[in-house]
Each structure stands twice: as C-alpha cells, then as structure tokens.
Amino acid sequence: MFITFTTHKQSMRYFVVFLFALLSLNSFAQGTNTNPEKVSGIILNEATLQPVAGVSIININRVKGTVTDSRGNFTIEAVANDTLHVSLVGYQPIKVRVSSDWIKFKNVTKINLTEKAYTLEEVIISKYNLTGYLQIDSKLAPVRENYRYSISGLPQGYESGENSPNAFKKIISSMFNPADLLHNIFGKKPAEMRRLKEMKKDDSVRNALAEKYDRETLAALLGVSKDDIADILERCNYSEDFIKNSNDLQIMDAISGCYEEYKALNRK
C-alpha cells in the first residue's frame, strides 16, 4: 500500500511538471512571435523639439525602410528587439531598439535627433597659372584617371589608376587566383553579405543610401565597420578616388557586384 501511494504521488508530480512546461512553452512561443507588426513614432529635433521631415528609418534586422513625413511621423514593420537605424544628413545617427511594450500598446514613440556640430577646416587653393583658354588650361589642370581592367573568367572588370595603390599587383594576383582573393573578403561574412540582396530590393533603403556619403547606415546594415567597407572595396580593386567620393548606394552596388563574382567563382 505504501508503494502504491508513492507511485501515485510521483505520477501527480510528473503531471504538474509536464503541465508547467507546456504552459511555459506556449508562453515562450507567443513571446517570440516573428510576425512583424507596424510601429509608429515621431522624430524630433532635440534642441528645438520640432518635428524633423525626411529622416530615414531602416529596420536593420528586416532590411526595410521608410522616411518621416512633413510632421516627423513614420510607420515601419518590426518585431520585438529589432533595431531601427535613424539618420539624416546633418544629424547624429542613432539606433533604437523596438521594445515589446512599443508593439503591444501601439505607442507613438518620440525619438530625438541631435544636430552635428561642424567646424570648417582651412581651404588651400592651389594656383595652376591658367591662361583662360580651355584647350590650354585643360592640359595644365591635373586630371585623375581610373581604369577598369577586364579579367578572364570574371563578368566585371577591376578598377585601377594612380589613386589605387598597388593596383597592378592586385590585378595580377586576381588573375592567377581570384577565388582565393575574394574568399578572404567574403568567406568570413556570408550572412552579412547575403543581406545585400534584400537591401537592393527596398526602394526606401536605396533612396536613403543614395543621399549618404558617411557609410554609417551601410555599415549598420551590413554589420561591419566603416574601415571594413573600405578594406573590402580596396581588395576588390576599386580606386581610392571611388572609395572616398562615391555615395553609399554606389558603394553598396560595388560590394554587391564583387560578392556576386565571389559566389560565381566559388560555385565553379
């Protein structure tokens, strides 16, 4: 009789544990729902508390973007713990985490942006002794030229010129073993680079990148540093002039093109 009582007691204990585990699993599943919902907010100037129009808001996790209207309002799809990258030329970019309360209570969250303080550097104007005649002055003024070399086996050429250090050496090494060269760039960042396809599909993201030259948004989307972006482009044999002067959209397309070359060569 004692043994039967103990067995029954243990069975009840196991049932309670199982029930508790089942409820916990259900609660966890509800809390980790990955279906995106719309969240709304308003972007304000931190100093004046006035709404800011034309601010780019990009969900880094889902690679979706939008911009604020004339009253600083925006709506974007997100789930809890997604990160929004908020940026505008002239303001300090920030990252905002989407909380579960923001989604649950449908709050219109206020986000403050801080204006950047710029100091003007000294500008030195060089004299080229121009004559006023276009045909003569065009030869006196320095012109930087960059070239694209076609490489057998690659669908696109490689850029070089006087602003691309060791460009010829890089081109030769790429000809002999381009797959190894590109694998050193992208082999360690497959997940980040795959997101390039998603970035290229969203017009809001592309429009935001077309207006930027600071690499901040692009670095946040790819999960790399700005130095990494410059290193990737240099190893893909883009000139220093292109790396410094292109907008973020052009940089994204350049990296995407180089990554497509890597995938094609890797498959072969």
Question: What does this molecule look like?
Answer:
The chain is α+β, with helices and mostly antiparallel strands and about 270 residues long. Helices cover about 45% and strands about 15% of the residues. It contains eleven helices and nine strands. The strands form three sheets. A four-stranded antiparallel sheet has the order 3-2-5-6, covered by helices on one side. It has a three-stranded mixed sheet with strand order 4-1-7, with no helix packed on it. The protein has a two-stranded antiparallel sheet with strand order 8-9. β5 and β6 form a beta hairpin. The longest helix is centred in the first third of the chain and has 30 residues, at about 1-30. It is flat and about 85 Å long. Residues about 1-5, about 25-35 and about 150-155 have low confidence and may be disordered.
Give the averaged pLDDT, no decimals: 75
Helix and strand content put the structural class at alpha+beta
Kindly estimate the percentage of residues that lie in beta strands according to DSSP. 15-25%
Largest sheet: 4 strands, antiparallel
Poorly predicted ranges (pLDDT <50, ≥5 residues)? 1-6, 24-33, 150-154
**How are the strands of the largest sheet arranged?**
3-2-5-6
Describe the global form. flat
DSSP helix fraction: 40-55%
